[in-house]
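Response to reviewer comment R2.3. The reviewers asked that we include at least one raw input/output pair. We reproduce the pair for Acetyltransferase (GNAT) family protein here without editing.
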Amino acid sequence: MLIEFRPVADAEILALVTAQQRELREADGGLDGQTTSTRDDICYLVVVVAGRAVACGGLQELDRATGELKRMYVRPAHRGRGIGRQLLAALEELAFQRGYETLCLETGTYLPAAITLYTSCGYEPIPVYGEYVDNPYSVCFGKRLPVAA
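Raw output as returned:
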């Protein structure tokens, strides 16, 4: 398994984000309303297994001290192997290297596996923020990162 940076325009990033968004729409009954496009201001990491991108996650700056995790996704055939946990750790390390003090994220109430992953990795519930405020299915989490010595 390899975790590597990929540019936003990478075809495998687009395929993973499209699959993630499709799965979200199916899980929430089509109420999510998110788009399937990638954004230039998100830095993506991809997990590669046997030469194929099987998972992705992004980091976006909210402000100088806060990063937001975006587009966390593991292909269904690769779930249950700890890939999401390793990707999350790599994204946290990237956030730390970029000087963020806090990471936050939004997920859906209809994604209990995601909520379990985040809470088991030290994320705590925070108030719903930003574009998620009016979505009744949104739940948000935050985590303080270690301070550099």
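The first helix runs from residue 11 to 27. The domain at 2-103 is CATH 3.40.630.30 (Aminopeptidase). Further pairs are available on request from the corresponding author.
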